Structure formats: structure tokens, C-alpha cells
């Protein structure tokens, strides 16, 4: 027989005992048959019970058997108190589930190494400098020629890999009518080999795929895309698709699991860097640089060397920046090059959510701790009720270890059920949170595998939680003094002290969670009620592209065609959307003076744009169809203030300063209200609008291949018109195509998604924390009333008034609540320093921000204390004293 | 009468040897066999026999199964396993080595 049979025997212990018993019986019978005296034969066996236990112990694993017995006993105990058990499991499940969900997100976004060879050797290049707004900014883009210089300079110490920012683009496998969206990344040919990746099908890029600009129209599909789009069709190799102006041939499929280097985006197609139109441009930063640093190479000198090359490149380029103010030029050149570990990849999403996720993780951990404190109190109260049972066990020879085990096994039951339920919660909640990270039309795509990392975390969490809430009651139970317990006179205050301390702790954590939740909610409220200066109601933005560049007249013709449609109120054309993520800026010179260091932000619009966006005209006039760029401009109030002081700017001239010393003259024809241009958090920017109608130096119209057609509809749900508008744009003029449609409202809201997510989650966990802490306080008070019935009865019999009794019962607990709240306040003030950057127009020291959680907690505490007090004052002294 | 277990490690050896000659014996039969074969010199007590049997079964030297006796009652009988045969030969040689050594000591003194 093996270990396995010994384990199996643990679970059929009854049969085992019966077998042994039967064997002994048959032995005795045999002896009697052989003529031995029955009494003597039985006596020869000695202590049959001892013998049976001895034989039993041989056949099974002793500790496992006792564990089984405890598990069965614990299970019965839990079933006896169904309501409290369910409450304990639910609250723990919520805590464990939230923690596991947070872990899944943090792991997937920030920690999990890329599925490549030696991820620890990967570093991302970034540069830090003082930006145009005068603040220290970090940027990780470079122009490709600069990358080439850096790569050549450090090739003995590190291999540099160029990888473009992943973008969502249009491609078609068939006709122009069948364009579809895909995420693409331009990557260095050697990326795949450097990452140690092998193709799942076909081939990956090779040496000759990335040499000549525009000369390598090949694509590698990601395994995920190949599965989703083609159902793993092996015939896909050799097929081609059209993207931008090129026809790309699919040469291979990447390995399973590799989805690019940007957590939050799953790249669909990989294209050689040389196919990027910016591959030869010195002024276009469109790619990140990853470095695979060779073993033993020091990072500091490497960063310094790269920094020197980068600076030389930018200095050479800056010779053309003759119009840039000296100070800005210095700031621009004084960049510090950083090498940041990139084992988990690099993405903007990481930067945006590192702190918010950490804050959320702390919040859910606090909720879990509150739940643990609750369950610990519950176990302590139950242990009190079972003190006699424990004392009896000790008296008949149970070891302390066995008692600890008994109570811990019971706790483990709770934790296991809670973990299972919490696992379901995490499985459901993590993808839900991911779906709230980005706007619906550009969702974050994050792989959330449930592998050994997640399971391991769940296991550690479960064991940790068991010890956290089970160990103290277990030790207390095992330290029982049989004599005093059986007499019924164990010190009841010791137990209550522990419970009160836990109530204090719960309150402190609860205060912290509510405090932070309040700050997040206020931040979201203020940001989402931030006036934008324009009306987003019923506005659709149609990102429109053309096959070949089209003259502004043709664009206007498309707008005119849409204007005739029923349900359309106004139509205009612009170079980009407000708050759409794009910005363009230049320095301005007034009266030939040198620029004052403030950048002006620019947008080109058609004449009807201001009316379509409902931006108020303060002075002057709108654009006319004959106005052109350069020439006329409309400016906002901030622009007027910054460049013209208090004067009315209408009619005044200014110059826009471009590279290589070019200066474009403008005359202000109108003054309009301030609007949010790029972001809702920053101060209003000085802004100038100029006509969409652009002419070149010779006076010919400049054709455009992309623009935004802005449509204000009369329908309450503008998206209902999306498909009609898409069709009509294509019909209006051949060659025009709508690539993407978004409502302006959705664009505006995309700026507060993070705040909305934080506010919602923090509020949810705040409420959960409050509920748990309330239930905890209720339980403790109720328990102490039950325990002190005798004492309260005597006090009442002696004539204590009701108020006295109520005060007597609640004083200690409410004092702990107060102390806890103060502790939570102190903790909260320290903690929010780390997440101050997430707040907007909200100060943690704001009295309202402090008063709100205090009042809520006080109200909840009073409410939770009520049932206990009522119970206390309803005690009938006669009944209590007679029962004794 | 000697108690078989008073000679260190001899109980296992005796049980294994008996089972190698006569397979499928129940506990009482093993006990009687040891007694009769030793010429009524060695006697095994029930209190030692059954734990030893169960231990050896656990170790895989012997196998047990339930049979129905002529009188309709069930009895557990034991037989030697392959591992038990190996164990028997090593126990046997160990026993011979030990007794030879003891004899040598007795002769020389």
C-alpha cells in the first residue's frame, strides 16, 4: 500500500475501523473454536481500542485524519450559524474578489513580462525636458534618422529597436467599400529575432525587409488577429491588403501570445519601419525606442552616450529654428535621456493608470482588511460562546496545537468559500473595469489570462486572509484556562478589548476609503462640469479621408451636400476636432516684436464651423468663403489678452513664425469666446483659427486628403444618423470616405474616463467599507450587550435610568469609533500626498472633504449602535435575575 | 515460552517466512503456525501481531484480502508480495549474520 492508499483511508475511516474490528472478532472466534477459553482469548487481546487505534494509525496519515475530523466539525459549526456564515463569506468574498481583480489588472498592465526572450534586458528610451508650459515633461518619441544615429553609436553595448506607437488604421482586403479597422505597429526588421520569436506560419521580417524607404510592402500578422480575422486560415500567406496608398503582402504570422509591446493594445499587423512615411523625416517623431542592453553594460554611461548623440542631432536640427525664443530653444535642447526598464512593455496606458491602479489597490486592500476584522470579531464572539467546549477539550487532553488547528480549519472553510466566490467576482469585474478605461469605439484590449500568477496570488491571499482573521481567535481559544472557563468566570473584558480595537481599526480604514472616494468623486464632478465653451449636443464628427488630396472647394461641396439632408442642422469642415487629442502650435509675433514665449494653438476651420460648434462671437465677423490661409484669423479671448493686452484685437495684424525663418502674416477679423482645445484640466490656451481654405506661396489652392466634417443634427441621438452620413459623404463626391464617426460628447467624455472610473470604483468600495464597518460595530455592540445581560439587569434593578444604560453600553465602542476616525484622518492625509496629481480643483485639506466622511461615519455608527442599545434597554431585570 | 518479539526484529522475519511457505493465512493461523513450528517455544501476542501485520501491509511486503470461511464468516487472510519475498531474503540473511556473530562471541569467550 502506498501514500495514496493512506490518504484515501483518511476519507474512509469508518470502514477502516470496521475492518479492523471485524478482523479482531474473527481472530477471537477462531481461538474459541480451537478450544481456548473465551474470556482468556479476549483478555489476550488487551486493550482492543488501543490496538485498533494503533492499527488505524499505521494505515492512514494521522495529521490528515485529524485535519479531516476538524474540517467536518468546522463545517457543522458553520452550518449551525447560517446567517453569520453567509455574511462573513460574502464580505470576505467581496474583499478577496476586489483584490484579485485589482491584481489581475495591475499584473496585466504593469508587471507581466512580455512573452519575449530576456525581457529583463529591455529598456525604453525617454527624454525629459522643460516643456513649452514650463513644466518638466517626459517624452519617448524620436525621429527615425536620430534613431539610426543612436543605434549605430551603441551597437556594441545594446541593440536598439524602433517600434511605432500603435495606431488604429484603415485597411482593406478587397474594394474601397470594404475598409476595416486594424491596429498596426511599424517595427524594426530585427525586432522579432531580437525578441527570440519564431513565426507560427510563413516568415517574420528579415535583414532585407527594412532598408529602402517605402520599398518593403510586407506585413506580419499577429497570432491573435490571424485567429480572429481569418480563423487561422493557412492560406492567408501571400494575400495582400491595401493600407494608406500601399499594397502590402502578408508574409507570416507571429507567435502565439505576442501582441506587440504596448500593454492595452493588441497589435494586429506589423509593418517594417521603412514603410512609415516619416522614416526619412527629421522633424517627425513617430516611434519609441526599445534597447536590449547587453549583459554587464552599465546603464548610466549608456544613457549619457545616447543622450549626447540625440542632443547633437537636435542641435543640428535647431539651426533652422531661427524663430524660436532663446529660452525655449535652450529648454528644448537640454534634454536628459532616460533608460527605463521595459520588461512589461511600454504604453501610455501604463503611465496614465500606474497611480490610479495603485490607489485602487490600496482601497480594495483596506476593504479586505475591514472584512477580515469583521470576521475576526465574529470568530471571537463565537469562540466566547464555545469557551466551555474548548475548556472541555483541553481537560480531556487535547493539545493546544489541536485547538489552534480546530479554529483555523474553521476559518479556512470561510476563506475557501470566500475565495471561490471572490474568484468569480474577479473573473467578472476585471474585464468590466478594462472596458471602462477607454471610449467604446477604441477599447483597451488587455489580455487577462487566469494562469499560475493569478491563481498563486489567489492562494496566497486566501491563506493570508485565513491567518489574518483566524489566528488571533485561534490563539485565544487555545490559551484557555479550563478551570476558570468551566466555572464560567473567564475575564470577559479581555475579549471585548480585542473586539473594540478591531472596531477602531475598521473605522480608521473606512474613514480613509470614504475620504479618498470623496476626493475622487469631487474631482470627477468638477472636471465633468467644466465649461467647454462650445456645445457638444447632437454634434457628430466625421473623420473623413480622400483617396487623393482634394481641393478645399471639393470639401465644401461635400459639406453642402450634407446640409441638404433631412435631420441635419449645420455642417462645417475643420482640420481636427476640439479635445480630439491633436494639437498644433506656433510662436506668434505682434508688430515684429520677438515672440513672448507663449505658444498659440491653431485650428483650421470652414466659415460655418463657429456657428456649428455654437461658440459665441464677441467682436468682428466670421470667416467668409473667400478668406484664405495665410491671411485672416479669428482669435479667442485668451489669445487677445496674451498678445494684445486689453485692446480690441479685431483688425490688428500678427505674424505666425514657422521653421527656417518663414513668417506668415495674418489679420484678426473676429474675436470669439474661449473654448477647451486640447484638455479639460489645463488653463485655457491662446488660440487662433484660420481658414480651411489654404493657398501656397504661388496663390494656388492647397489640396487636403483628410479633415473632420462636423455635423450638428436635429435628432436627439446623433449616432442614429451615422450610417446615412457615412453613405452620403461617399455619394457627395467620389474619392471621399468616412473613416470614423464619433459624437463630440463622447470625445469630451473621453477626457474624464479615468476620473469617472476612479470615482465610481472608489464610491462603490466606500459604500462597501461603510456597510462592513457598520455591520462590524453592530455585531460587537450586540455581543457585548448579550454578554453583559446580568450586569445590565442588575443595574436596571437598582434603578439606573435608560439613558445611563445606553451610554454605558455604547461609550467604549463609540470612543473607539472616534479614535478610529481620527486615526483614519491622519492616515488619509499622509496617503493622499501620493495621489495628489489625480485630483482636480480639490484639496484634501478642504473642510468639506473632511467633514463629509466624518458625518457619514458618525451617522452610520449611531445607526449601527441602535439595535444594541434597544436590546439593552429592553432587558427585563426580573427575567434576567430569575434565570440566574 | 519465549515471546517472539523479544528477539529484535524477529517477528517480521517469522511472519514473512510462515507466509512464504503457506500463503493465505489469517492472523490466528499465523500465530498458531509460529507457535507449532517453533516447537511451542515461541509465542506471538495478538497485541504485537496485528500492528505488525498492518505495518507490513502498509510497507507493501504482504497483501491482504477478505475471504468467506466455511462457517459463513469473513476473515482477512494475508499473502506474501514480490517485495515481501525480497524483504524475506534480506531479513533472513541479516538474521543469519547476526546469529552467527552472536555464536562466534559465545564460542570465543
Outline of the structure:
Chain A has 884 residues and is of the alpha+beta class.
- Please provide the count of β strands of chain A: 24
**Portion of residues within helices of chain B:** 55-70%
Report the β-strand fraction of chain B as a percent range: 15-25%
Q: Can you give the mean pLDDT of chain A?
A: 87
Largest sheet of chain A: 6 strands, antiparallel
Compute the number of structural domains of chain B.
Answer: 1
Distance between the ends of chain A: 58 Å
Helix content of chain A: 40-55%
Instruction: Find the CATH superfamily of chain B.
Output: Winged helix-like DNA-binding domain superfamily/Winged helix DNA-binding domain
Number of helices of chain B: 4
How would you describe the oligomerization state of the chains in this entry?
A: heterodimer
Radius of gyration of chain B: 15 Å
- Radius of gyration of chain A, taken over Cα atoms and rounded to an integer in Å: 37 Å
Which protein chains are joined by the largest interface, and how many residues does each one contribute? A-B, 22 and 21 residues
State the low-pLDDT regions of chain B, or none. Answer: none
CATH domain class name of chain B: Mainly Alpha
The major beta sheet of chain B can be summarized as: 3 strands, antiparallel
- For the record, the CATH architecture of chain B stands as Orthogonal Bundle
User: What shape does the CA trace of chain A take?
Assistant: elongated
Amino acid at each position: 500500500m502506498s501514500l495514496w492508499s493512506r490518504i484515501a483511508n483518511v476519507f474512509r475511516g469508518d470502514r477502516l475501523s470496521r475492518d479492523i474490528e471485524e478482523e479482531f472478532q474473527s481472530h477471537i472466534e477462531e481461538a474459541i473454536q480451537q478450544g481456548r477459553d473465551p474470556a482468556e482469548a479476549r483478555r489476550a487481546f488487551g486493550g482492543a481500542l488501543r490496538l485498533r487505534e494503533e492499527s488505524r494509525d499505521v494505515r492512514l496519515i494521522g495529521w490528515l485524519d485529524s485535519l479531516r475530523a476538524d474540517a467536518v466539525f468546522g463545517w457543522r459549526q458553520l452550518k449551525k450559524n447560517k446567517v453569520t456564515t453567509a455574511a462573513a463569506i460574502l464580505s470576505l468574498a467581496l474583499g478577496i474578489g476586489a483584490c484579485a481583480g485589482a491584481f489581475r489588472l495591475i499584473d496585466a498592465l504593469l508587471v507581466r513580462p512580455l512573452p519575449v526572450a530576456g525581457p529583463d534586458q529591455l529598456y525604453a528610451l525617454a527624454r525629459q525636458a522643460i516643456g513649452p508650459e514650463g513644466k518638466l515633461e517626459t517624452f519617448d518619441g524620436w525621429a527615425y534618422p536620430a534613431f539610426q544615429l543612436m543605434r549605430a553609436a551603441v551597437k556594441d553595448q545594446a541593440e536598439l529597436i524602433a517600434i511605432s506607437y500603435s495606431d488604429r488604421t484603415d485597411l482593406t482586403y478587397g474594394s474601397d467599400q470594404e475598409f476595416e479597422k486594424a491596429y498596426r505597429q511599424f517595427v524594426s526588421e530585427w525586432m522579432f529575432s531580437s525578441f527570440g520569436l519564431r513565426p507560427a506560419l510563413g516568415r517574420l521580417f528579415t535583414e532585407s525587409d527594412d532598408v529602402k524607404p517605402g520599398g518593403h510592402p510586407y506585413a506580419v500578422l499577429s497570432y491573435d488577429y490571424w485567429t480572429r480575422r481569418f480563423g487561422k486560415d493557412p492560406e492567408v500567406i501571400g494575400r495582400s491588403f491595401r493600407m494608406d496608398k500601399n499594397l502590402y503582402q502578408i508574409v507570416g504570422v507571429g507567435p502565439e501570445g505576442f501582441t506587440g509591446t504596448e500593454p492595452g493594445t493588441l497589435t494586429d499587423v506589423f509593418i517594417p519601419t521603412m514603410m512609415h512615411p516619416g522614416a526619412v523625416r527629421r522633424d517627425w517623431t513617430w516611434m519609441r525606442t526599445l534597447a536590449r542592453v547587453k549583459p554587464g553594460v552599465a546603464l548610466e554611461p549608456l544613457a549619457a552616450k545616447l543622450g549626447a548623440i540625440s542632443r547633437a542631432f537636435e542641435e543640428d536640427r535647431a539651426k533652422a529654428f531661427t524663430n524660436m525664443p532663446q529660452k525655449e530653444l535652450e529648454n528644448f535642447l537640454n534634454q536628459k535621456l532616460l533608460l527605463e526598464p521595459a520588461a512589461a512593455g511600454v504604453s501610455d496606458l501604463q503611465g496614465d493608470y500606474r497611480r490610479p491602479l495603485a490607489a485602487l489597490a490600496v482601497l480594495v486592500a483596506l476593504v479586505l482588511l475591514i472584512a477580515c476584522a469583521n470576521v475576526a470579531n465574529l470568530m471571537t464572539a463565537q469562540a466566547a460562546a464555545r469557551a466551555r467546549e474548548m475548556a472541555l477539550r483541553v481537560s480531556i487532553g487535547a493539545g493546544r496545537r489541536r485547538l489552534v488547528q480546530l479554529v483555523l480549519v474553521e476559518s479556512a472553510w470561510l476563506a475557501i468559500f470566500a475565495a471561490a466566490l471572490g474568484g468569480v467576482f474577479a473573473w467578472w469585474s476585471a474585464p468590466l473595469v478594462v472596458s471602462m478605461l477607454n471610449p467604446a469605439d477604441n477599447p483597451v484590449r488587455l489580455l487577462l489570462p487566469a494562469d499560475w500568477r493569478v491563481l498563486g496570488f489567489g492562494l496566497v491571499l486566501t491563506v493570508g486572509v485565513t491567518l489574518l482573521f483566524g489566528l488571533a481567535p485561534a490563539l485565544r481559544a487555545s490559551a484557555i484556562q479550563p478551570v476558570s472557563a468551566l466555572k464560567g468566570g473567564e475575564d470577559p473584558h479581555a475579549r471585548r478589548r480585542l473586539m473594540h480595537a478591531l472596531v477602531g481599526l475598521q473605522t480608521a480604514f473606512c474613514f480613509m476609503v470614504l475620504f479618498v472616494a470623496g476626493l475622487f468623486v469631487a474631482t470627477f464632478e468638477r472636471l465633468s462640469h467644466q465649461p467647454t465653451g462650445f456645445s457638444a449636443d447632437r454634434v457628430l464628427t466625421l473623420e473623413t479621408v480622400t483617396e487623393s488630396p482634394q481641393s478645399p472647394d471639393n470639401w465644401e461641396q461635400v459639406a453642402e451636400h450634407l446640409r441638404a439632408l433631412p435631420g441635419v442642422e449645420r455642417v462645417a469642415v475643420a482640420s481636427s476636432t476640439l479635445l480630439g487629442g491633436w494639437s498644433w502650435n506656433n510662436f506668434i509675433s505682434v508688430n515684429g516684436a520677438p515672440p513672448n514665449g507663449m505658444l498659440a494653438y491653431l485650428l483650421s476651420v470652414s466659415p460655418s464651423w463657429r456657428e456649428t460648434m455654437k461658440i459665441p462671437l464677441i467682436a468682428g465677423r466670421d470667416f467668409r468663403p473667400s478668406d484664405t490661409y495665410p491671411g485672416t484669423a479669428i482669435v479667442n479671448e485668451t489669445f487677445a489678452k496674451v498678445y494684445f493686452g486689453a485692446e480690441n484685437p479685431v483688425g490688428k495684424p500678427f505674424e505666425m513664425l514657422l521653421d527656417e525663418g518663414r513668417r506668415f502674416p495674418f489679420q484678426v477679423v473676429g474675436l470669439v469666446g474661449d473654448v477647451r482645445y486640447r484638455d479639460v484640466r489645463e488653463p485655457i490656451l491662446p488660440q487662433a483659427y484660420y481658414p480651411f481654405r489654404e493657398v501656397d506661396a504661388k496663390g494656388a489652392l492647397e489640396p487636403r486628403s483628410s479633415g473632420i466634417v462636423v455635423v450638428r443634427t436635429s435628432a436627439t441621438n446623433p449616432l442614429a444618423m451615422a450610417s446615412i452620413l457615412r453613405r452620403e459623404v461617399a455619394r457627395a463626391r467620389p474619392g471621399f470616405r468616412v473613416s470614423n464617426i464619433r459624437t463630440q460628447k463622447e470625445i469630451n467624455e473621453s477626457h474624464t474616463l479615468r476620473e469617472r472610473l476612479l470615482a465610481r470604483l472608489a464610491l462603490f468600495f466606500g459604500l462597501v467599507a461603510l456597510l462592513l464597518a457598520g455591520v462590524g460595530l453592530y455585531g460587537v455592540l450586540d455581543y457585548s450587550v448579550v454578554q453583559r445581560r446580568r450586569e445590565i439587569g442588575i443595574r436596571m434593578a437598582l434603578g439606573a435610568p435608560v439613558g445611563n444604560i445606553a451610554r454605558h453600553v455604547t461609550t467604549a465602542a463609540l470612543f473607539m469609533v472616534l479614535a478610529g476616525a481620527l486615526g483614519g484622518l491622519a492616515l488619509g492625509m499622509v496617503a493622499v500626498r501620493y495621489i495628489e496629481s489625480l485630483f482636480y480643483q480639490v484639496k484634501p485639506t478642504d473642510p468639506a472633504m473632511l467633514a463629509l466622511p466624518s458625518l457619514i461615519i458618525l451617522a452610520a455608527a449611531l445607526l449601527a449602535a441602535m439595535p444594541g442599545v434597544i436590546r439593552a434597554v429592553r432587558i427585563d431585570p426580573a427575567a434576567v435575575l430569575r434565570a440566574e | 515460552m519465549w515471546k517472539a518479539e523479544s528477539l529484535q526484529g524477529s517477528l517480521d522475519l517469522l511472519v514473512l517466512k510462515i507466509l512464504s511457505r503457506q500463503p493465505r493465512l489469517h492472523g490466528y493461523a499465523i500465530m498458531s503456525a509460529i507457535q507449532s513450528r517453533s516447537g511451542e517455544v515461541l509465542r506471538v501476542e495478538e497485541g504485537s501481531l496485528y500492528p505488525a501485520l498492518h505495518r507490513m501491509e502498509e510497507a507493501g511486503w504482504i497483501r491482504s484480502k477478505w475471504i468467506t470461511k466455511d462457517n459463513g464468516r469473513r476473515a482477512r487472510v494475508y499473502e506474501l508480495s514480490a517485495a515481501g519475498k525480497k524483504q524475506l531474503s534480506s531479513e533472513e540473511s541479516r538474521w543469519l549474520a547476526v546469529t552467527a556473530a552472536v555464536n562466534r562471541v559465545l564460542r570465543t569467550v
